[in-house]
Design goal:
By secondary structure, this protein is α+β, with helices and mostly antiparallel strands. It contains nine helices and 23 strands.
Length: about 375
């Protein structure tokens, strides 16, 4: 959704606004889209400048659209395990995990971050899909004593190499001890928060989960003020950086018809563990039979792409359609067009030459390693 006339936006009441909505408009948001039935800022100007702000300094992003499914009650741990193929038996209180939510056929419904706030207290921080309704439906027939709600929780992402210094300015030096994929309960001048060392950027970063939606504007301004000496800029999640890092976008790189093995996410599927979860039998069959397609990285040989793709681009081998490009972008740092694609397994080997049908015509492409930058994730895990 973009500006209608001048500086005015056209918004309806059927789509929710985040607690940071007014602040983002005030700080230069120029376009929005809809995600989890809520407006999300998608444009603060030049997307390449947003990328450089992220990788060189820090950006603050309104990601309140990452709604939380809260699972509590005596059977919360057992029920949460039922939703995901990842073994949660080693997930400690205060820890976060990247998990998949699968259905009975092994299809992926969502790929949230799971946060464990207590022995029987979990949040699922969602990608774009109605997992609240799915979880409530599963609970009805589970026979388990659980409560499934959407709490008043709205995250912000503070991402980039200077984010650690900004967090110390906000919370003190001890925040530097927060480990990758762990969380802490915090207050900032009385504003209740959960802070985690996570984020959708492949950079050092933090997420601040606001637990009182009436204080969103106040929280935004406090972070912006603390970040000013460190070059903090308002921004939006960077397609350039997330594709460089091989990070997946639900509805683009995967959907209900995608299974984890096609994405190479075997590590998130613990079929041999003594756990029960939805889709276990189907995923065992898929593992044993093998998959007919796989996700690959592509380098596309053409002029720099001016923006990310808004449709799936067909992939060909000698005029045979063998797959589709799901996410593509020009990386100014790598100085090449990079993409994630789903192709037939026989065309997934490194170095294979393919063709991609762009809106402007057919171009050559090569299967390459992914992630395209920092494959060992040293940036996020060691800083």
């Amino acid at each position: 959704m973009t500006a209608s006339t001048g500086s005015e936006f056209g918004f309806g009441t059927q789509i929710r606004k985040s607690p940071y909505f007014d602040a983002t408009v005030r700080w230069g948001a120029k376009a929005f889209s809809v995600y989890n039935h809520m407006y999300i800022p998608r444009d603060f100007g030049d997307p390449e400048q947003n990328f450089w702000n992220l990788v060189n300094r820090a950006i603050l992003c309104d990601v309140a659209v990452e709604r939380q499914v809260e699972i509590t009650g005596p059977d919360a741990a057992k029920f949460t395990q039922l939703l995901t193929p990842r073994d949660l038996s080693t997930c400690a209180v205060g820890q976060c995990k990247y998990v998949l939510i699968t259905n009975a056929t092994g299809g992926i419904l969502n790929d949230p971050i799971l946060l464990r706030l207590g022995e029987n207290h979990f949040w699922l921080s969602l990608a774009d899909n109605d997992i609240l309704l799915w979880a409530q439906g599963v609970a009805v027939n589970s026979g388990m004593d659980v409560i499934i709600t959407e709490p008043d929780v709205s995250p912000l992402q503070l991402q980039g190499p200077n984010s650690g210094e900004i967090m110390q300015a906000l919370f003190g030096e001890s925040i530097a001890d927060l480990r990758y994929y762990w969380l802490e309960e915090k207050e900032l001048d009385g504003i209740p928060l959960i802070v985690s060392r996570t984020g959708w950027s492949s950079e050092l970063g933090y997420e601040l989960y606001l637990r009182d939606g009436t204080r969103g504007d106040e929280l935004w301004e406090k972070i912006i003020a603390a970040g000013a000496p460190h070059g903090l800029a308002p921004g939006h999640t960077s397609s350039i950086r997330r594709i460089e890092g091989g990070m997946l976008s639900y509805h683009a790189d995967m959907d209900i018809n995608t299974n984890p093995f096609e994405l190479g996410l075997d590590r998130l599927i613990n079929l041999n563990a003594d756990i029960e979860f939805i889709g276990k039998a189907a995923l065992q069959k898929i593992r044993d039979a093998g998959v007919s397609r796989k996700q690959v990285g592509l380098e596309i040989s053409t002029e720099p792409l001016k923006q990310s793709n808004t449709t799936f681009w067909p992939v060909y081998s000698h005029s045979e359609n063998v797959g589709k490009v799901t996410s593509a972008i020009y990386s100014p740092r790598l100085e090449r067009n990079i993409a994630l694609a789903m192709v037939a397994t026989e065309f997934a080997e490194l170095g294979i030459q393919l063709e991609v049908q762009l809106p402007t015509g057919m171009v050559k492409a090569t299967v390459v390693e992914k992630p395209f930058y920092d494959p060992k994730k040293k940036i996020t895990t060691t800083r």
